[in-house]
Amino acid sequence: MKEQQLTYVLPKGWIWTTLDKICYKITDGSHNPPPKQDNGIPMLSARNIENYTINFDKDLRYINEEDYIREKQRTNIEQGDVLLTIVGTIGRVSVVEQTQKFAIQRSVALLKPIFISSRYLMYYLSSPFSNKMLINNSKGSAQKGIYLSTLKSISIPITNLHEQHAIVSQIETLFSKIGESEKILKKASYSLKIYKQALLKDAFTGKLTNKIIKEGKLPNGWKIIKISNISNVVRGGSPRPAGDSRYYEGNIPFLKVKDLTKDEKVHLTTFEYTIKEAGLVKTRRIKPRTLLISNSGATLGIPKICLIDSTINDGIAAFLDLDDRSIYYLYYFFLLNTQKLRDISMGATQPNLNTTIIKNIELPYCSFDEQKQVVEIIESRFTLADNLGKTIDNVLNEIIALKHSILKNAFEGRLVNYTSNESAEKLLDDLKEEKRLYLENQKKINLSKPKPKKKMEEKQSIIDILKKSNSPISAQELWEKSTSEGDIERFYSEIKEIYHQIDELKSKTESLLTLKDEDK
């Protein structure tokens, strides 16, 4: 039995059907998006679809009016339509509420419900049962996705329209009450992060250990030094070529940036990668209790105290010859200044902190005894804040579980007490008839469209088109000339069958396809 056909027992008056049977149309966005514009009409991707809302402020791509009109002819997005993410992060869903013009990319599916509450459909698609079906039926290795044919066959329980509205109303009443608590908890969680940063700032201006400090001055006995005054900052190294069996997969720990950034712990005690003895001459070995910092990439500036004998790659810097009494003091100093370090390298294609920059960073410095006091106060207050943070996280997780439980009960018919003689069977018959009329009307509209004046080219298979083409052609042109035009799934299925025979050439604006030389 296919996963999308799994069902459970429904109350009397309910019935199982499929998404295809309750929608006028199920399609997806553009597979070959038009060139980007600096402004214009938004073209949304999966990242713009958040659960129950559409974000028009996040990483928008814009297209011109002409391209929008072309996209609209295919999708015709309207109020009441349901948008569902089907590539990458699968299962985020929202209803189109606004009249703002926009188009969608292929990572977003469009569902046009017939006589079904749009919000009922939205909440069902976000329910644990539906989400499990979507994920279990996704395909792909690097990036998972749902084929439209699979999406159309996903099961959905329906009841009469009045009960649908009652269910939606109850869900939204409960979610609203829960949402207020959720907002308060998230605000408290954010406040804890601000508190910890403020605590670190006070630590390195001397305020944690000194009651009287002149504004803009350091306490007596403190001074500003450079990192190079107390430590030799060195960069790691990586045996080349990467992955070469002569150097890698040995028994010597080899740390990469993600070993430092995978969690927020002070200490690093585990590793994922290893090298062999032959790789030692091309990297740098460090002793236990060495302070490290990530110095390249988007996650640079993350400090860690390594407790294992290891080696480090060139994305990590190590603080050698550092007095052990200063190691935690310096750790918390860099924890305070992570964002400042990122700002230094802002704008670079690959953000990077070289050792010269790190050596010249200025550090408020005090005696070893006072450093110890500073660290003890930080750790004591961090522990209290972290424990409170864990409690907040646990409650937030319980809220998520409660929402899942509400949705589960809703679509098992156990959320509202609703008595009616109306049957979902009658609704299903109405849906079937309405869709039949819709498809007939669409057929008439298509037949009434003026035929192009130019002579229509004879449709050919994709392989024949590529064989006869003297130069690479775009996927759009291939689609228009092929026998698959009008059936996107058939088109991509045919492409998949011959993909090993195709070369993909990248231009500035699009991908061009051609047969490999031996296949021409």
Automatic annotation (TrEMBL):
It comes from the Bacteria. GO terms for molecular function: DNA binding. Residues 36-184, 219-396 form the Type I restriction modification DNA specificity domain. InterPro entries: Restrct_endonuc_typeI_TRD, Restrct_endonuc_typeI_TRD_sf, Type-I_RE_S_subunit. The keyword DNA-binding applies. SUPFAM superfamilies: DNA methylase specificity domain. Keywords: DNA-binding, Restriction system. Pfam families: Methylase_S. GO terms for biological process: DNA restriction-modification system. Belongs to the type-I restriction system S methylase family. This is Type I restriction modification DNA specificity domain-containing protein.
